[in-house]
Amino acid sequence: MYGLVHGRFQILHNDHMKYILAGAEQCDRLVIGITNPDPAMTREDGADPARSQRESNPLSYWDRFRMVDAALRETGLPQDNFSVVPFPINFPELWGNYAPLDAKFFLTIYDAWGERKLAMLQENGLNVHVLWKRPPEQKGITSTKIRQAIIAGQPWEHLVPPSVAKIIKEKSVMACIRSLAAAN
Protein backbone atom coordinates (compact mmCIF):
# COMPACT_ATOMS: atom_id res chain seq x y z
CA MET A 1 0.00 0.00 0.00
CA TYR A 2 1.18 3.51 -0.84
CA GLY A 3 1.13 6.24 1.76
CA LEU A 4 1.67 9.94 1.17
CA VAL A 5 2.89 12.76 3.40
CA HIS A 6 3.39 16.28 2.17
CA GLY A 7 4.81 19.64 3.17
CA ARG A 8 6.75 22.62 1.94
CA PHE A 9 9.86 21.51 3.84
CA GLN A 10 11.31 25.01 3.47
CA ILE A 11 14.00 23.64 5.62
CA LEU A 12 13.40 20.04 6.49
CA HIS A 13 13.66 19.75 10.28
CA ASN A 14 13.51 17.09 12.96
CA ASP A 15 9.75 17.44 13.55
CA HIS A 16 9.14 17.02 9.82
CA MET A 17 11.12 13.81 10.08
CA LYS A 18 8.86 12.56 12.90
CA TYR A 19 5.85 13.13 10.62
CA ILE A 20 7.49 11.50 7.61
CA LEU A 21 8.69 8.47 9.55
CA ALA A 22 5.30 8.05 11.26
CA GLY A 23 3.76 7.83 7.79
CA ALA A 24 6.46 5.42 6.60
CA GLU A 25 5.64 3.04 9.46
CA GLN A 26 2.07 2.68 8.21
CA CYS A 27 2.61 1.78 4.56
CA ASP A 28 4.73 -0.34 2.24
CA ARG A 29 5.98 2.58 0.16
CA LEU A 30 5.87 6.24 1.16
CA VAL A 31 5.52 9.11 -1.27
CA ILE A 32 6.79 12.42 0.10
CA GLY A 33 5.08 15.28 -1.71
CA ILE A 34 6.86 18.63 -1.74
CA THR A 35 4.25 21.38 -1.88
CA ASN A 36 4.78 24.77 -3.51
CA PRO A 37 7.21 23.05 -5.89
CA ASP A 38 7.20 25.99 -8.28
CA PRO A 39 6.61 29.67 -7.46
CA ALA A 40 4.19 29.83 -10.41
CA MET A 41 2.14 27.07 -8.76
CA THR A 42 1.76 28.74 -5.40
CA ARG A 43 -1.57 30.27 -4.48
CA GLU A 44 -2.48 32.21 -1.38
CA ASP A 45 -4.92 30.46 0.93
CA GLY A 46 -6.87 32.38 3.55
CA ALA A 47 -6.15 29.69 6.15
CA ASP A 48 -2.48 30.76 6.17
CA PRO A 49 -1.58 33.56 3.73
CA ALA A 50 2.09 33.60 4.82
CA ARG A 51 2.64 30.13 3.30
CA SER A 52 2.50 31.58 -0.20
CA GLN A 53 4.82 34.55 0.35
CA ARG A 54 8.17 34.44 -1.44
CA GLU A 55 10.13 34.90 1.80
CA SER A 56 8.37 31.80 3.19
CA ASN A 57 9.50 29.79 0.17
CA PRO A 58 13.19 30.58 -0.36
CA LEU A 59 14.39 27.14 -1.38
CA SER A 60 13.97 25.53 -4.77
CA TYR A 61 12.18 22.24 -5.26
CA TRP A 62 15.57 20.71 -6.06
CA ASP A 63 17.13 21.79 -2.76
CA ARG A 64 14.15 20.48 -0.82
CA PHE A 65 14.19 17.21 -2.78
CA ARG A 66 17.87 16.79 -1.87
CA MET A 67 17.14 17.45 1.81
CA VAL A 68 14.30 14.93 2.02
CA ASP A 69 16.18 12.28 0.06
CA ALA A 70 19.39 12.68 2.09
CA ALA A 71 17.59 12.73 5.45
CA LEU A 72 15.61 9.59 4.65
CA ARG A 73 18.72 7.77 3.46
CA GLU A 74 20.42 8.88 6.68
CA THR A 75 17.70 7.12 8.72
CA GLY A 76 18.42 3.88 6.90
CA LEU A 77 15.01 3.74 5.20
CA PRO A 78 15.64 1.69 2.05
CA GLN A 79 15.44 3.81 -1.10
CA ASP A 80 12.96 1.32 -2.56
CA ASN A 81 10.54 2.26 0.24
CA PHE A 82 10.11 5.94 -0.67
CA SER A 83 9.74 8.42 -3.51
CA VAL A 84 9.97 12.21 -3.43
CA VAL A 85 7.67 14.08 -5.82
CA PRO A 86 6.27 17.56 -6.42
CA PHE A 87 2.81 17.95 -4.88
CA PRO A 88 1.04 21.19 -5.87
CA ILE A 89 -1.33 21.30 -2.89
CA ASN A 90 -3.08 24.40 -4.25
CA PHE A 91 -4.06 22.62 -7.49
CA PRO A 92 -6.13 19.52 -6.67
CA GLU A 93 -6.82 19.00 -10.36
CA LEU A 94 -3.10 18.26 -10.85
CA TRP A 95 -2.51 15.89 -7.91
CA GLY A 96 -2.98 12.77 -10.02
CA ASN A 97 -0.14 13.86 -12.30
CA TYR A 98 2.34 13.63 -9.42
CA ALA A 99 1.08 11.20 -6.81
CA PRO A 100 -0.92 7.98 -6.48
CA LEU A 101 -4.44 9.07 -5.59
CA ASP A 102 -5.21 5.61 -4.20
CA ALA A 103 -2.61 6.16 -1.46
CA LYS A 104 -3.44 6.76 2.17
CA PHE A 105 -2.79 10.48 2.75
CA PHE A 106 -1.21 11.05 6.16
CA LEU A 107 -1.73 14.41 7.79
CA THR A 108 -0.89 16.27 10.98
CA ILE A 109 -3.05 19.17 12.13
CA TYR A 110 -1.92 22.12 14.25
CA ASP A 111 -3.90 25.04 12.87
CA ALA A 112 -6.43 26.33 10.34
CA TRP A 113 -4.13 25.39 7.45
CA GLY A 114 -4.06 21.76 8.63
CA GLU A 115 -7.86 21.77 8.84
CA ARG A 116 -8.04 23.32 5.37
CA LYS A 117 -5.80 20.60 3.91
CA LEU A 118 -7.91 17.90 5.58
CA ALA A 119 -11.04 19.37 3.99
CA MET A 120 -9.35 19.68 0.56
CA LEU A 121 -8.15 16.08 0.59
CA GLN A 122 -11.52 14.75 1.75
CA GLU A 123 -13.44 16.91 -0.76
CA ASN A 124 -11.40 15.25 -3.47
CA GLY A 125 -12.35 11.78 -2.26
CA LEU A 126 -8.94 10.79 -0.93
CA ASN A 127 -8.29 8.33 1.88
CA VAL A 128 -7.00 10.57 4.69
CA HIS A 129 -5.54 9.44 7.99
CA VAL A 130 -4.76 12.08 10.63
CA LEU A 131 -1.62 10.98 12.46
CA TRP A 132 -2.13 13.56 15.18
CA LYS A 133 -3.99 16.75 15.91
CA ARG A 134 -2.43 19.18 18.37
CA PRO A 135 -2.90 22.83 19.35
CA PRO A 136 -0.60 25.37 17.64
CA GLU A 137 1.49 25.88 20.79
CA GLN A 138 2.56 22.22 20.56
CA LYS A 139 3.84 22.51 17.01
CA GLY A 140 7.48 22.65 18.09
CA ILE A 141 10.10 23.36 15.46
CA THR A 142 9.19 25.52 12.47
CA SER A 143 11.15 26.19 9.31
CA THR A 144 10.51 29.90 9.79
CA LYS A 145 12.32 29.86 13.14
CA ILE A 146 15.22 27.95 11.59
CA ARG A 147 15.51 30.42 8.70
CA GLN A 148 15.42 33.30 11.20
CA ALA A 149 18.17 31.66 13.28
CA ILE A 150 20.34 31.19 10.18
CA ILE A 151 19.90 34.82 9.19
CA ALA A 152 20.65 36.02 12.75
CA GLY A 153 23.72 33.80 13.05
CA GLN A 154 22.17 31.82 15.92
CA PRO A 155 22.49 28.04 16.46
CA TRP A 156 20.16 26.00 14.27
CA GLU A 157 22.01 22.83 13.27
CA HIS A 158 20.55 20.84 16.18
CA LEU A 159 17.04 21.35 14.74
CA VAL A 160 17.71 19.50 11.48
CA PRO A 161 19.13 16.11 10.48
CA PRO A 162 22.92 16.24 9.93
CA SER A 163 22.55 15.65 6.19
CA VAL A 164 20.19 18.63 5.95
CA ALA A 165 22.62 20.88 7.85
CA LYS A 166 25.30 19.94 5.32
CA ILE A 167 23.06 20.93 2.40
CA ILE A 168 21.97 24.19 4.05
CA LYS A 169 25.59 25.17 4.60
CA GLU A 170 26.25 25.03 0.88
CA LYS A 171 27.00 28.50 -0.42
CA SER A 172 24.06 28.58 -2.85
CA VAL A 173 21.47 27.50 -0.27
CA MET A 174 22.70 29.93 2.40
CA ALA A 175 22.75 32.73 -0.17
CA CYS A 176 19.15 32.01 -1.12
CA ILE A 177 17.96 32.16 2.48
CA ARG A 178 19.91 35.33 3.26
CA SER A 179 18.98 37.11 0.02
CA LEU A 180 15.29 36.92 0.78
CA ALA A 181 15.89 38.32 4.25
CA ALA A 182 17.91 41.19 2.77
CA ALA A 183 15.08 41.97 0.34
CA ASN A 184 12.62 42.55 3.21
What characteristics describe this protein?
184 residues, alpha/beta, Rossmann fold, five-stranded parallel sheet, 6 helices, 5 strands, Rossmann-like_a/b/a_fold, transferase, Cyt_trans-like, nucleotidyltransferase, nucleotidyltransferase activity
In short:
GO terms for molecular function: nucleotidyltransferase activity. 37% of the residues lie in helices and 16% in strands.
Describe the 3D structure.
It holds the Pfam family CTP_transf_like. This is Cytidylyltransferase. Keywords: Nucleotidyltransferase, Transferase. The chain is of the alpha/beta class. The chain has a single domain, classed as 3-Layer(aba) Sandwich (Rossmann fold). Helix content is 37%, strand content 16%. Strands 3-2-1-4-5 form a five-stranded parallel β-sheet, with helices on both faces. Helix 2 packs antiparallel against helix 5. The chain is globular and about 45 Å long.
**Number of strand segments:** 5
The 3D shape can be described as globular
Helix and strand string, N-terminal first? Answer: EHEHEEHEHHH
Radius of gyration: 16 Å
GO molecular function: nucleotidyltransferase activity
Keywords: Nucleotidyltransferase, Transferase
Pfam families: CTP_transf_like (PF01467)
Protein name: Cytidylyltransferase
